[in-house]
Design goal:
Layout (H helix, E strand, L loop, with lengths): L2 H18 L4 H19 L3 H20 L2
C-alpha cells in the first residue's frame, strides 16, 4: 500500500467514527476517501475494487443529500 492509500483508510475510519456520533460530515469524508480509492483502483487495474468504490462514492453523495 502506498502512503496515499493509508491516508484514505484513515479518512474513512474517521468517517465511521463520526457516523457513530451522527455527524453528517462523515459522508464528505467518505466521498473523499472513496473517490481516492476508486482512482487508485483504476490506476492499479483492480476493476472489482474500482466498481465497489464508485458505488461507495454514489452512496456518499446519497448520504449527503439525505442528511441535509
Amino acid at each position: 500500500m502506498t502512503t496515499l492509500s493509508w491516508i484514505f483508510a484513515v479518512i474513512a475510519l474517521v468517517g465511521v467514527v463520526l457516523n457513530l456520533y451522527k455527524k453528517p460530515i462523515c459522508f464528505w469524508l467518505w466521498l473523499v476517501s472513496n473517490s481516492g480509492n476508486a482512482i487508485y483502483a483504476v490506476h492499479k487495474e483492480a476493476w472489482s475494487l474500482a466498481v465497489l468504490f464508485c458505488c461507495y462514492v454514489a452512496l456518499s453523495v446519497w448520504g449527503i443529500k439525505k442528511w441535509k
